[in-house]
Each structure stands twice: as structure tokens, then as C-alpha cells.
Amino acid sequence: MVEDTAPTQREEDIIEAIYRNPHRDQGVTVSELCKALVLAKPTVSLMVKKLQEKGLVTREPYKKIFLTKQGTEKAKAILRRHEAIKEILIKSGTPEDIAELDACKMEHFLHTETLEALMNSLFDPKEKERHNKKQPI
Q1: Pairwise CA distance, residues 88 & 90, whole Å
Q2: Long-range CB contacts (within 8 A, 24+) of 52-57
Q3: β-bridge partners, 66
Q4: The HTH dtxR-type domain covers which part of the protein (predicted)?
Q5: DSSP assignment of the chain
Q6: Pseudo-torsion of CA 90, 95, 100, 105, nearest 10°?
Q7: Which of 33, 52, 53, 57 is CA-nearest to residue 43?
Q8: Which residues is 59 bridged to in the sheet?
Q9: Which domains, ranges and CATH numbers included, belong to the chain?
Q10: What is the pLDDT along the chain (137 residues), one digit of tens a residue?
Q11: How do beta strands 57-59 and 65-67 pair?
């Protein structure tokens, strides 16, 4: 049986939290992730273990957690989606604080083609080009 290597929503949240941590180059602790995501240590530890198995993070037992190259690329992709969705919501009249909360949820399940269609209908070509320069969504 082949295990699904795509990260779950919660795993993506952990990848994103590691990437957003200002000290990510020195490593992030489980405690820092618990605080950032408001999750219990056992939950975060289990997710980190799964992310290790998927090759997205590295960690020595009871040490700091680092994103692998693959994990960093995944984190960047998640953030690009997040930023694009947030901008779409704001452009559609959603208050920024609500757009931020909704983008956090939508970044995980909005189909790429749907996001592209929304961008095509709401962004002028220069805005769309700016998003595409950040790399494809």
C-alpha cells in the first residue's frame, strides 16, 4: 500500500508556522509551534513525526525542527495561495481581518483552477502577472 505523501491541512499549518517563524533558520521548537497554532504538544509532536516521514521537516529527538528544501517549497506555495486568496477577498469587499481568517482556511481546499479563475476575473493583467512572478499557485 502506498502512503499518501501530501500533507494534511493541519500538517500544512505546521509547515506554514515554521516558515513564518522569524527564527526558522535556527530551528523551531514544538513549544513555539504549540503557541503559534494553539495546539497541544502531543498533537504537534505527532504531526512533526508525520512531516518527517514525508520528508518535509527534519528533527532530532527533543531538538529543534527545520524545514527541508521540499518543506520550504511547500511552505512558499501555501503562502502564495494564502496571499492570493486574501487579496481576492479584500478586493471583493471583505474586511482585511476577516479576509485573513478566511484565507487561512481556504488556502487548504480551494482548487487551483478555481483560484486561477477568480484571479482572472478579479485581477487586471499586471496584478495577475505580479502574482505569477511569485511563482505559480
Answers
A1: 6
A2: 53/3, 54/5, 54/7, 54/11, 55/5, 56/7, 56/11, 56/15, 57/15, 57/18
A3: 58
A4: 1-68
A5: -PPP-SPPHHHHHHHHHHHHSTTGGG-B-HHHHHHHHT--HHHHHHHHHHHHHTTSEEE-TTS-EEE-HHHHHHHHHHHHHHHHHHHHHHHTT--HHHHHHHHHHHHHHS-HHHHHHHHHHHS-HHHHHHHHHT---
A6: -90
A7: 33
A8: 65
A9: 9-67 (1.10.10.10), 73-133 (1.10.60)
A10: 334 578 888 999 999 999 999 989 999 999 999 999 999 999 999 999 999 999 999 998 789 999 999 999 999 989 988 998 999 899 889 999 999 999 999 988 888 888 888 888 887 766 666 665 555 44
A11: antiparallel
Which grid cell is 72? 520550504
Residue type, 62: Y
Q: Which residue has the cell 520550504?
A: 72
